[in-house]
Design brief:
The protein has seven helices and two strands; from the N terminus they run ααααββααα. It has 117 residues and is of the alpha+beta class.
């Protein structure tokens, strides 16, 4: 992915999630990704060094930092050829709606089962 898109898969996932939830904290992002916050530290540092995202002081809590995409980072927050999203959209556009509904129910049941543990 890095060669085609310019960022690694984990970096792109972080950019997409921050793009969808501007102002999310690093802890909130780790929770959404189901990873320990320390797992994200390196990814966030590399993205900040490349000026793709910034950490800002939370206006409602000065002790907390929140994440936002820079203008440059926003260019990665879209469906692009060579990405998982593009492949999913291609497949979904060729599958019957009833099959998609069945797959959604199956995946929801799987998520519910995994969240029990």
């Amino acid at each position: 992915m890095k060669r085609e898109v310019g960022v690694t898969g984990p970096q792109r996932l972080v950019l997409r999630l921050v793009g969808r939830t501007p102002g999310i904290s690093a802890g909130g992002l780790a929770e959404a990704l189901h990873v320990h916050p320390s797992t994200l530290t390196g990814v966030l540092e590399r993205l900040a060094r490349r000026r793709l995202l910034v950490r800002k002081q939370d206006p409602s809590d000065a002790r907390r930092a929140v994440l936002e995409l820079t203008e440059r980072g926003k260019s990665f927050d879209r469906v692009r050829a060579g990405t998982v999203e593009a492949a999913v959209l291609r497949v979904l556009s060729s599958v019957d709606e009833r099959d998609v509904a069945v797959a959604q129910r199956l995946l929801a049941a799987l998520v519910a089962e995994l969240e029990k543990h």
